[in-house]
Amino acid sequence: MSVRRPEAGGAPFELIEAGLQDLATLAALERSCFDSPWSVEELATYFGSGAVVGFRLLVGGAVAPGAYALFQLLPDECELLRIGVEPGERGRGIATELLGRALERLAGEGREVCHLEVRADNAAARTLYERLGFRLVGRRRGYYADREDALRYRRGPRRGAG
Ligand SMILES: CC(C)(COP(=O)(O)OP(=O)(O)OC[C@H]1O[C@@H](n2cnc3c(N)ncnc32)[C@H](O)[C@@H]1OP(=O)(O)O)[C@@H](O)C(=O)NCCC(=O)NCCS
Q1: Which CB contacts under 8 angstroms, 24+ apart, belong to 20-27?
Q2: Which one of 57, 59, 68, 85 would you pick to mutate in the ligand 1 pocket, going by the greatest count of ligand atoms within 8 A of its CB?
Q3: How much distance in Å is there from the Cα of 6 to the middle of ligand 1?
Q4: Ligand 1 in reach of 127 Cβ (< 6 A)
Q5: pLDDT, tens digit, 9 for 90 and up, residues 53-77
Q6: Most C-beta atoms within 10 A of its C-beta, which of 2, 60, 68, 125?
């Protein structure tokens, strides 16, 4: 898979974990990416539970502006809760890089299986997930308030394999 590098010159990428010190930044990103953004307080509750991990991307030593991903951790699986790239930074491969690296990190920690749910009309997110190996495994008709369907995707070894 060829990934368009977000920056010129091939500066190195590094995945960094987001922590409590990043809550205000994450809440601002939520507001720029989602119609129903999570507040600082909600994010604090999730992070405080210890079952949610957040990632951002360092590009050439600087935090990539406006990109984050949040996962719920289960003993041997994870669920992608949110991924967002601020509008002015989209279409440059940042989400592909961030999510690809986060999935690699989580798989290395024993969470090869990742689940997620996405609106059926979210073409950008669906393209992103399918590029990174997620397979469509289910549909909830009329799940969202505006009656749009929710699609469930799964990535990782098939059940019963190996
Ligand atoms: C989904 C999102 C994270 C993608 O971020 P991004 O950095 O622009 O993604 P990338 O540049 O890595 O592109 C990933 C793929 O999506 C494709 N894509 C981007 N915008 C698209 C669109 N509007 N329609 C269809 N495909 C699109 C890209 O072309 C790319 O595929 P390709 O490499 O085969 O061309 C970003 O659009 C976003 O933050 N959206 C709002 C929040 C959201 O909906 N999050 C997902 C649900 S939690």
Answers
A1: 20/44, 20/47, 22/54, 22/56, 23/47, 25/68, 26/54, 26/68, 26/70
A2: 85
A3: 13
A4: yes
A5: 999 999 888 887 799 999 999 999 9
A6: 68
User: Is 117 one of the annotated active-site residues of the chain?
Assistant: yes
Determine the distance separating the centroid of ligand 1 and the alpha carbon of 161, expressed in angstroms.
Answer: 30
Rg (CA), the chain: 16
Which alpha helices (H) appear in the chain, and where do they start and end? 23-33, 40-48, 94-108, 123-131
Q: Which uninterrupted H or E stretch holds 53?
A: strand 52-59
Phi (first) and psi of residue 50, to 5 degrees = 80, -5
What is the reported pLDDT for 95? 96
pLDDT band (50, 70, 90) for residue 8: very low
- According to DSSP, residue 91 is labeled T
**Cα 111 to Cα 153: distance, rounded to the nearest angstrom:** 15
> In the structure, what pLDDT confidence band is assigned to residue 5 with cuts at 50, 70 and 90?
low
Does residue 116 line the site of ligand 1, with CB under 6 A? no
